[in-house]
Amino acid sequence: MTVPPPSLLPALFPNAVPLEPFLDETALQQECVTLPSMPVLWQVQSIDSTNRCLLEWGPRGLPQHFCLVARQQSAGRGRQGRPWVSDAEGSLTFSLWSVFDRSLQELSGLPLVVSLGMVEALHSLGMTCVGVKWPNDLWREGRKVAGVLVETTRLSRGQVGAVIGIGLNVALPPAVQDTFALPLNDLRDEEGLAPARAPVLGRLLNTLIPLLESFAQSGFAPFAKTWMTHCVHRNQPVTLLHPNQTRSQGECVGLSPLGGLILRDLEGESHIYHGGELSLRFGVP
């Protein structure tokens, strides 16, 4: 894993506690040996938001697939501006910076590609009961185990910079779980043992980076069928909540080439809905 000199950290990330690696870098490197080149990764003990930092500093020249992982975030956030509460010992929170030669519309499927890569990485580690929930969550046994927040910024020459924020519950204490309205899960096994975070992060990067490269070339369409095989609400009735408080209901039957959710209503008509401010709920009340 490429590590820049610690002396550069204050200039790039003034709101971060100085660079003090907290993950086993040898374990990280062992998981990334099949990548064509090792990603640049910085570890910080504490920061306000890894996404915020990369949104600010990415356009100034960060390398492709730069990864910033934080032991603790004081202002982490999820979709729709919701706070993301993490635990210094029980969470894995990081952000990736990637640049794409694609339009913002074409990038609408990016969160789904990321969630697919995360599921495939966790399955390869033996956690096969983890699935995806549209558009960007991971669920395990009916409870949320991870979330993805993609934020974009326009760059010169028509490119788009994307910050891919990931929050993964590895071993959350009950006090943290109780702060969420949704039921939460983590990666602990039946005996209560959690995997080490360093190899999990390494496996995630080793899986995600090739998928991001493929997405950059081909868009989301080639991933749609595979994503649906991991979908926890495939062929199930769901309700979509719109920002104006209206609802759309139907059976989840697939994904569009751009990652929109295809619902079949009671009359048998199919409708496509894209993420953004939509929220999916299981079932039809």
H/E element string?
Answer: HHEHEEHEEEEHHHEEEEE
User: Uncertain segments of ≥5 residues (pLDDT<50)?
Assistant: 1-10
How far from one another are the termini? 49 Å
Please give the largest β-sheet. Answer: 7 strands, mixed
Number of helices: 7
CA-based gyration radius: 18 Å
The helix/strand class is alpha+beta
General form = globular
- Kindly report the average pLDDT value: 87
Strand content: 25-35%
Count of β-strands: 12
**Estimated helix fraction:** 10-25%
Side by side, the strands of the main sheet go 1-2-3-7-6-5-4
**Could you state the oligomeric state of the chains shown?**
single chain
Supply database-style keywords:
285 residues; alpha+beta; disordered N terminus; single chain; five-stranded antiparallel beta sheet
Would you write up a description of this structure?
This protein is of the alpha+beta class and 285 residues long. Helices cover 23% and strands 28% of the residues. It has seven helices and twelve strands. The strands form two sheets. It has a seven-stranded mixed beta sheet with strand order 1-2-3-7-6-5-4, with helices on both faces. Helix 2 runs parallel beside helix 6.
